[in-house]
Design goal:
The protein folds into 3 domains: 85 residues; 112 residues, 2-Layer Sandwich (Beta-Lactamase), CATH 3.30.450; 101 residues, 2-Layer Sandwich (Beta-Lactamase), CATH 3.30.450. By secondary structure, it is an alpha+beta fold. It is 17% helix and 42% strand.
C-alpha cells in the first residue's frame, strides 16, 4: 500500500469487505486478503478496524505494541447502517495524513418502497445547502443530478430486477446544486432485509468524489446516444419517465418533471389507489403503445387527471421497463 494514502472500503454485506478506492483512484471491489496479500498483519489490523466501525459506527484509532497505527472513519447512511469506511495504516514514524481524504458518502436505495436516503457526507458532496436536506427522497429524485454513462441501462435494469447480490460500479458525473460538475465513482450491492412489512430489497452504496469532471476522462460529459434520441423527440407539455412495471413507481425522469405533479414524496404511490388497474393496464407492455387517463397526486390539487401513454423500454436483453409520456396539457383537477 502506498504510504500516506487512505483506502476506501465497502462493508455492504453478503461478502467480506472489499477495496473500492485508493486515494482518489477507484478500485473494482478488490478483496482485502488480495490487497494485503504481502502483509497479513495489516490485513488483521484492517479487519479489526472494520469490525469496530461496523458494530458501533464510531471512528477507530489504535496503535499496536509493535508501533503500527490504524485509523478508520465510518461511512454511515441515514438508516444508521455503516456502508464502509476510510482506512489508513502506517507506522509511528509515519505522520497521520496531513491532507484529508476525499469526500465520500453512504446511501441506500430501497428497491421495494422506492425510497432513497443518503448521508450528510453525500449531501456535502452534492453541495446541497443544509436547510434543504431531507433524510428520505423518492428514487426518481436521486437521478436528477446525475449524468450517466453508457452503463445507465444496465444500472436501471438492476433496479428493476431487484436481485440480492446484484452489484454495480460506475463513474458518472454529478451536477452539484451550485452547478459544479464532479466525477463520482459509485459502488453498490443489493441485499434482502426482513422487515415488519415483509422482505425488502435494498441497494447499499457509496459515492466517492474523485475530482472535477473535466479532469477525469471517464466522467460522462454528454448523454449517451439513446438518451439524446429521447431528448430530441421531447414535446412541450409532455414529461417522460422510466417506470417500474411491477409497482408503477417512477425510476427516473427523462424530461424535467412537471411542476403540477407531486411526484417526489418517498414511499407512497404517485397514482390514485382506485387507479391501480389502470396502471396495470398501462404496464402490460404489448407491442403497441397504450394510452389511458390516470389520476396523479397534484401539487395544488389533491388529484390531477392526466393522459398517460405507455410503451416498452428495453433496458437489457432480459429486462423491460415502461416509458410513460405524461401529457399535462390534458390535466383536469379533482
Amino acid at each position: 500500500m502506498a504510504g500516506h494514502e487512505w483506502c476506501l472500503v465497502e462493508t455492504f454485506g453478503l461478502k467480506p469487505p472489499t477495496l473500492i478506492g485508493l486515494g482518489s483512484r477507484p478500485r473494482s471491489m478488490v478483496p482485502l486478503d488480495k490487497f494485503f496479500a504481502r502483509n497479513r498483519a495489516s490485513l488483521t489490523m484492517a479487519q479489526a478496524a472494520l469490525d469496530h466501525v461496523t458494530a458501533i459506527a464510531e471512528p477507530y484509532d489504535v496503535t499496536t505494541r509493535n508501533g503500527r497505527r490504524c485509523l478508520a472513519q465510518p461511512l454511515r447512511a441515514y438508516d444508521s447502517r455503516v456502508n464502509g469506511a476510510w482506512l489508513w495504516l502506517g507506522g509511528l514514524e509515519e505522520p497521520e495524513p496531513a491532507v484529508p481524504h476525499d469526500l465520500a458518502g453512504a446511501w441506500y436505495f430501497n428497491l421495494t418502497s422506492f425510497e432513497v436516503a443518503g448521508s450528510d457526507e453525500l449531501l456535502d458532496l452534492y453541495h446541497q445547502p443544509k436547510d434543504e436536506r431531507r433524510t428520505k427522497r423518492a428514487m426518481a429524485e436521486a437521478f436528477t443530478r446525475l449524468t450517466a454513462g453508457p452503463d445507465a441501462s444496465e444500472a436501471l435494469a438492476k433496479v428493476v430486477q431487484s436481485k440480492p447480490g446484484s452489484e454495480h460500479q460506475a463513474i458518472w458525473t454529478v451536477v452539484c446544486d451550485d452547478g459544479d460538475r464532479r466525477a463520482a465513482h459509485f459502488s453498490c450491492r443489493a441485499l434482502q432485509h426482513q422487515t415488519e412489512d415483509g422482505p425488502q430489497i435494498v441497494m447499499h452504496g457509496i459515492t466517492h468524489d474523485i475530482g472535477p469532471a473535466d479532469d477525469v476522462p471517464q466522467a460522462p460529459r454528454l448523454a449517451v446516444l439513446e438518451r439524446r434520441v429521447l431528448d430530441a423527440v421531447a414535446k412541450p407539455g409532455t414529461h417522460r419517465a422510466i417506470v417500474d412495471v411491477r409497482t408503477g413507481h417512477i425510476i427516473q425522469w427523462v424530461d424535467p418533471p412537471p411542476a403540477s405533479i407531486d411526484w417526489a414524496v418517498p414511499g407512497i404511490d404517485i397514482f390514485h389507489p382506485d387507479d391501480a388497474a389502470v396502471v396495470h393496464h398501462l404496464n402490460r407492455l404489448g407491442e403497441d403503445a397504450v394510452t389511458a387517463s390516470l389520476r396523479l397526486r397534484g401539487t395544488d390539487v389533491m388529484w390531477a387527471s392526466v393522459t398517460v401513454t405507455s410503451q416498452p423500454m428495453l433496458l437489457n436483453n432480459s429486462t423491460t421497463a415502461a416509458l410513460w409520456t405524461i401529457d399535462v396539457n390534458s390535466t383536469s383537477r379533482r
